[in-house]
Design goal:
The structure is a homodimer. Chain A is of the alpha+beta class. Chain A has two domains: 9-112, Phosphorylase Kinase, domain 1, CATH 3.30.200.20; 118-396, Aminoglycoside 3'-phosphotransferase, Chain: A, domain 2 (Alpha-Beta Complex). The first copy, chain A, has 14 helices and twelve strands. The longest helix of chain A has 32 residues, at 318-349. The radius of gyration of chain A is 21 Å and the shape is globular. The N and C termini of chain A lie far apart (49 Å). Chains A and B meet through helix 6, helix 7, helix 9 and helix 12 of A and helix 6, helix 7, helix 9 and helix 12 of B. The structure holds adenosine-5'-diphosphate (ADP) (2 copies). One adenosine-5'-diphosphate binds next to strand 2, strand 3 and strand 7 of chain A. Chains A, B: Homodimer. Chains A, B: GO terms for molecular function: ATP binding; S-methyl-5-thioribose kinase activity. Chains A, B: Belongs to the methylthioribose kinase family. Chains A, B: Its EC number is 2.7.1.100. Chains A, B: This is S-methyl-5-thioribose kinase.
């Protein structure tokens, strides 16, 4: 374990040279290695280091938010990302990058390089995303979700795991504030929107007490439900694709919560892409269907094949399990609808917005796309209790 | 902190003599003190030590279950009881005994002596319980429940508190096994029942897949919901009464979970008393109503007076808060009904049974009381989704 210092390209290469296993993966001598910064997320520094034999992706926390150095942020976030990879590795296999090294002193993760891949949001904006990626994301959520559920493991294991991620306070604080509070607060300085086009829509969102009651229910659901280990930030910028290969990255927001949070967030990002780009909506609807069926199939398969060491469901007979599964999927869908609504609103008028909107063909289109996102978001939150299957969800978009 | 050894009356008195604050409360010299064992619970040793100036109640863990020395059990349970008292003291005031001393090495709690009080279950069986005690228990659950809810405190505080009690593994294991699993398992050696009178009722309970699906939902609700800090074992043996003064003791099962668990467990114990003793049912129904209104009033009052530092509800307007409260109480009642059902069944045919049954006037009455407890238990579990207010609950008893 080393003492923390932010590593630039030179310092990072020198550090890797001290680690035999990683040096061997790069091959050749350190002088032949190149380090290229690829950070495009909000929070951390990411370098790709390449050598004659291979390459590595190195991610390090900074003591502040990368895009806003005035916003101090504890370094520990990469540790939670590493714990997330370690916890899910066996259940999700190659759907996340392999973790090759963790330095808890430097708050440095070294992982499999996915430079052949492209960030999904970029691919969607540039128009070269391979159709069908969402099925893989659905499977990922299904496998990760079941493996960390009360049905799969004794509660003692899960309490211990929940404890680990319950220390992920600063990023959970971001979720609670940015996703489920700030956008609804008049005068909150972190909000911004296309003005004056959306002024009246935003004013409605901020004064609608029925909507606020729906948001309150989702706040409670997010904090008060420990259904599974969530990714916690599963938008299209947390996925990298290369043909059929779909990987989920950036699990630093991992926390136990309701599965509909991950699914709903991903769906909202597909919806925004569908609104922002011409002739895109029906494809995105197909992706949403694939996400949901991929999730249901994977989760149901794990459930059916469960060897039964969990405490929940130990009494269930096969016939009742089928009912129980149907009830479970209806519940996840209700959550999913509500959390999708939160994500639509916060990515349209909150602190961290979806880049997809800026790719609209013109400002009028962009304004309309954003307006639709706000209204669909509201509808999903207010009506979530009635949205219990994929047809009802698609109807509400 | 001292090294652990089980203290008998002599060793306990000698130990107290080394502690000036406690010695002062007892007054006089140690030779004038008397120690009287009053253990009547299942798990721990309890002594009342009296001196010329006052008395103390001393509770110590044993490395096994007191009533079953072959059943090893970690000592730490008194630590959780102490944490529970420390956590709730400010919110519930005199409704729990004052914690005077904790020795984490001896696993010894010294608390306010309630020898003027009587254990509620005993008072109910002996017929000298003061009517109306349940209102106080309802208030206790309401105050404790709100003070440890997402509405009352920032999630960072509650995650930390939840972590503390999530280590309460051995007692939570008892709850999961004895309350929500074993009774439904054919051939489980911990079950016993009035045989042959109840053989066919028990066989039904153990082969009813609709019931087992209901139990499964409650397992999930108990483990997957962190609504508030529960007492975790709130039966009539965990309450001591003296006229108007009603105290809740024995919080060693404390864990975060759904509030309906505490309320439902208490209700079930009132129901069993009502079934077991002649001319008792309508009084017990009144107590159940008082419990519920006491709970609702206390919880609503705390909610209305909330200064708003919690993360849930930060956006709510007063008009929506009223709706939100109604929804909340309906949800708690559904849980309450289901958990009351679990408690009725496990106290009638599981490991730890309600002593009230043995106080029935004759065996035929006892058998009928037990049969009713099993059938009401089943009905409450299977129908809990439809039981949303106190009238519906009373109708189902
Ligand atoms: N394993 C990887 N291989 C290649 N590039 C990666 C890898 N992980 C992240 N990246 C690149 O780094 C960027 C930022 O990574 P991300 O984990 O999203 O950081 P942040 O935590 O700052 O959001 C990604 O958008 C992607 O371009
Ligand atoms: N503070 C107290 N004052 C007087 N008697 C008490 C007090 N606490 C417990 N007791 C007596 O000790 C008995 C056992 O205590 P309890 O906390 O229920 O133990 P256990 O954890 O073994 O169930 C109670 O039933 C009651 O008679």
């Amino acid at each position: 374990m080393s003492t923390y210092r932010p590593l630039d390209a030179t310092a990072l290469t020198a550090h890797l040279a001290t680690l035999p296993a990683l040096s061997a993966r790069l091959g050749g001598s350190p002088e032949s290695w190149t380090a290229r910064e690829v950070s495009d997320g909000n929070l951390n520094t990411v370098f790709i280091v390449s050598g004659p034999a291979g390459s590595l992706c190195c991610k390090q926390s900074l003591p502040y938010v990368r895009v806003d150095p005035g916003w101090a942020m504890p370094l520990e976030r990469t540790l939670f990302e590493a714990r997330w990879m370690q916890t899910l590795g066996a259940a999700v296999g190659h759907q996340i990058p392999a973790l090759l090294h963790l330095d808890e002193g430097l708050f440095l993760i070294v992982m499999e390089d996915l430079s052949t891949h492209k960030v999904l949001r970029t691919a969607l904006i540039e128009g070269d995303a391979p159709a069908g990626f969402s099925a893989r994301i659905g499977e990922f959520v299904g496998h990760a979700g079941f493996a960390t559920s009360w049905r799969a493991r004794p509660f003692e294991d899960l309490f211990a795991l929940r404890e680990v991620f319950a220390r992920n306070l600063s990023l959970t604080r971001i979720t609670v504030d940015l996703v489920m509070t700030d956008p609804y607060r008049q005068g909150c300085a972190r909000n911004r929107w296309l003005s004056p086009a959306l002024d009246s829509d935003v004013a409605e969102i901020q004064s609608d007490s029925v909507l606020h009651a729906g948001v309150t229910r989702l706040q409670e659901r997010f904090l008060g439900t420990t259904q599974a280990l969530l990714h916690g930030d599963l938008h299209t910028g947390s996925v990298m694709v290369h043909n059929e290969d779909v990987r989920v990255i950036d699990g630093e927001f991992a926390i136990f919560g309701p599965l509909g949070f991950d699914l709903g967030m991903f769906i909202a990002n597909l919806v925004m892409n569908g609104y922002a780009l011409p002739d895109r909506e029906s494809w995105m609807q197909d992706e949403i269907s694939l996400l949901w069926s991929g999730f249901c199939n994977a989760y149901r398969q794990s459930w059916d094949g469960n060897t039964g060491c969990g405490d929940v469901g130990s009494l269930a007979t096969p016939e009742e399990t089928t009912h129980d599964q149907d009830r479970f999927f209806r519940e996840v869908m209700r959550d999913c609808a509500g959390f999708a609504g939160l994500e639509l609103i916060r990515r349209t008028m909150g602190f961290a917005q979806a880049a997809d909107f800026a790719a609209a063909p013109d400002t009028a289109w962009e304004a309309e796309a954003r307006r639709r996102a706000l209204h669909t978001g509201r509808r999903l939150i207010v009506k979530s209790a009635l949205i219990e299957d994929i047809e009802a969800l698609l109807d509400a978009l």
